[in-house]
Amino acid sequence: MKREDEMTTRERILFMLKRQGTMTAREMTAELELTGMAIRRHLTALEQDGLIEVREARATAGRPSSVYHLTARGDGFFPKSYPSLTLELLEELTESAGEGIVDTLFESRRDKLLRSKLPQMEGQDLAGRVEELARIQNANGYMADASREEDGSYVLTELNCPIVQVASVYRQACRCELDLFRSLLQANVERTECYAEGGKKCTYQIREAAGN
Question: What local confidence, expressed as pLDDT, does residue 65 receive?
């Protein structure tokens, strides 16, 4: 994906809605430092293209406010790695070579990624490894962000899943990703929310492994 500073205004609006979930026109105006008239022009165009929708949200006091969110088509703006072709190929492989071939493929991919990314983790403490993993996932279109909790644990959040259609059918993808994270971080990692299971994001709770 483009860096945020390379995006057009309409792409930035889509990016903000992906990150925030919903936003009002006023919030977008403040974030983008545009006039109300300019932001409304962009929002109208995005609505006409079927990329966003608006709905009324009840406020705690005063009149309801209009909030915008991505449509399914708008969510498709973010990379999904040609899922239809991948699903067709995996189905054909399963039919010709049996169910086990899919496990082998995902495990082989996991091991290849581990070998290529592990050197980037060398010499870093857990905080550094988590930040490095977030950078790796960001570069691959996952819109990842890492934060430290008050109890010393970490949370890795992925707002986009480029392979969600594949992972929804072949859960081996999710299992192997979790195994990969545990190996790269050398930590206890648990997935607490999953995009492929209907969540709005993938969230990982990360804690120091015993003895580290």
Answer: 80
3-class secondary structure, 31:
helix
Report the candidate in 17, 83, 2 with the shortest Cα–Cα distance to residue 53. 17
Residues 6+ apart with CB under 8 A from 48: none
Torsion of CA 70, 71, 73, 75, to 10 degrees: 40
User: Once rounded to an integer, what is the mean pLDDT over residues 174-194?
Assistant: 97
Q: Which helix (H) or strand (E) holds 152?
A: none
Check residue 204 and give its pLDDT: 98
In whole angstroms, what is the distance from residue 110 CA to residue 40 CA? 45
53 three-state secondary structure:
strand
pTM score > 0.90 for this model? Answer: no
**Residue 152's pLDDT band (boundaries 50, 70, 90)?**
very high
